[in-house]
Each structure stands twice: as structure tokens, then as C-alpha cells.
Amino acid sequence: MVVCACAIAAAGALVVIAPQLNFTARATPSWLETRLAGYVLRRAVRNHAAAQPNPLPATAENIKAGEHEYLEHCAVCHAPDGSARDLLGADFFPPIARLARGAPSWSDGELYYIIANGIRYTGMPGFGQRHDPGEIWKMILWIRHLPHLTAQEKAELNQRGECMPQHEQHSPAPLSYFSRGKRLA
Question: What is the pTM of this model?
């Protein structure tokens, strides 16, 4: 009975307090919101993603095909080199994932789930209905390659990034969700 009363009180507090919070993409969320949202997202993906490795071998041909798909569909947000350099000049919450750093913490099946289905309320679209599974698996091969880019590959990607449409920045970089109040370089 006490547990039920506490649950009802917590739900009531949430209904009263939550609408008072600033949910804009420019606002810096509280520590609690950050931790709770991250926990829920990680658990949801892990609970729904298939526990499977990439069925495609990491051949030069598959990685190159994955690079092509990534540059066509992902680079506008995540940047050609996976750095999440903001080419759109927009504020995202949560911030755009830095795939060159963060992707290794997700399994192949989890990355496939995220790319195929998207993540609601994050700006991450789902590609599974309009793309062949093989294309998505090849993108994952390229994403896995991002932390190991050679100097030549980085230079080529930076040249491609300069050709991509970019929004002119009129103000300093926004505070990042994960920067704990520090401006991004």
C-alpha cells in the first residue's frame, strides 16, 4: 500500500513539475535528467536490439560501400569523419553522437537497431524501411573504421566536408549536453 501511494505521489509530482521544465534543445538539462535519459536510452536499445555481430566481412569493398552510404545519409549530422562537427548550425538535444568516439561502446546489433529504427526525440531518423539491411551493415563497417582513419583518409574526408552544405555560425558554439558547461571547440 505504501509503495502504491509513493508511486502515485511520484507520478503526480511528475505531472505537475515536468511541464515547468525547459525542454528546448538549447537548454542545458539537469544532471538528473541527463543521467536518467542516458540510462533509459541505453536500456531500451539493449533490450530491443538483436544480439548479433555484423554478418558482412570487413573487406575493403564493403567498407568503401559503407563509406558511400554514410557520406550520403549520415555525414550531414555526424560529419564526414564522425566528429559530430555541426554542419547544420543547429542545436541538438541530446547532442549529435560523435561516432568516432562513442560507437565502440555499442554492439553491432545495437548500432543496427539505432540506424534502422531511429531514436525518438533525438533527431536520429530510422533508415530501415527505405534501405536494404546490407546497406546498413556496410554503414556499420564504416562507422567501426572511423576511429582508425589514416591521416590521408582524414584529409580526404575534410575536403569532402568542405564541399558539404554548411550553415554559417553567427554565435559561439552552443553548450553541449555532455560538456558540463564548457564551450566546445
Answer: 0.76
